Amino acid sequence: MDEPRQSTTPTGGSQVPAATRALRVLRFLATQPDPVPLERIAREVGLPRSTAYHLLAAMIAEGFVTHLAEEHRYGLGVAAFEVGSGYSRQEPLQRLSRRALAALVDRVGQSAHLAVLHGRDVLYVVEERAPGRPPLVTDVGVRLPAHLTASGRAVLAGLPAAQVRALYPSPDAFVDRHGSGPRTLGELRAVLVETRRRGHATEDGEVTPGMASTAAAVLDHNGHPVAGLAVTYPAGEVSPALVAREVGRTADLLTRRLGGHPAAGPERPAVD
């Protein structure tokens, strides 16, 4: 049986599939804080105005776009929300990461976890505990201050400076657990600069005395840090350089699985 052919329309001298054009519109609308006029959509996506108009009409009919007629603007529709909700329900990041984390634990002999940023906290969504290792505070569903954790620092280091500043507008935003860690935006910035320089984040005793962690960010197709992947171990028991290399390799693997490109840094062997 012949495969269905994609409908194409000339745009900017090239043949662009209709599905690709629709996805570009959705991605653009998803990045906007408010609904936008037709002319801007056409310009940003690179479509003739008439083509953009007809494409939006079809997306409105399917519920992916809504038209605010009085404002002459377009925004995301309920169907787009349903797609996003479905993504969350299916937990693709957790599903993609579990085997990779288990392999990481086997290689380093220490417990590993994956956390996502939630406000000024990190929320732990996956944990793989190494046999015989002490229990950690990073159970699934636990929240910890992002600026104190290695996984949180790995994510924060990949965010724009303005976003970090918005998260930490004053010293009151810095929670203290054991009397260590950054307490001002300037101190946090210094930690994040060092994190970017090394290519991975660390913490030593700032979450749990006697325990250290090393983490790297997992990036999506836009280069945005969607999670921090960390290994936690008794301080002084294992080589931090070994842990950093293995954590980085696994973070790169998950980044590629999400369609992203690993951040530039030291050469790391590929992980199958």
From TrEMBL:
Pfam families per UniProt: HTH_IclR, IclR_C
Residue ranges occupied by any IclR-ED domain in the UniProt entry: 79-260
The UniProt record lists the keyword Amino-acid biosynthesis: no
InterPro entries: GAF-like_dom_sf, HTH_MetabolicPath_Reg, Tscrpt_reg_IclR_C, Tscrpt_reg_IclR_N, WH-like_DNA-bd_sf, WH_DNA-bd_sf
Stretches assigned to the HTH iclR-type domain: 16-78
Cleavable signal peptide: none
Keyword vocabulary terms for this entry: DNA-binding, Transcription, Transcription regulation
Xref: Gene3D superfamilies: 3.30.450.40, Winged helix-like DNA-binding domain superfamily/Winged helix DNA-binding domain
PANTHER family per the UniProt record, alphabetical: HELIX-TURN-HELIX TRANSCRIPTIONAL REGULATOR, ICLR FAMILY, HTH-TYPE TRANSCRIPTIONAL REGULATOR RV1719
Protein name as annotated: IclR family transcriptional regulator
Species assigned in the record: Nocardioides kribbensis
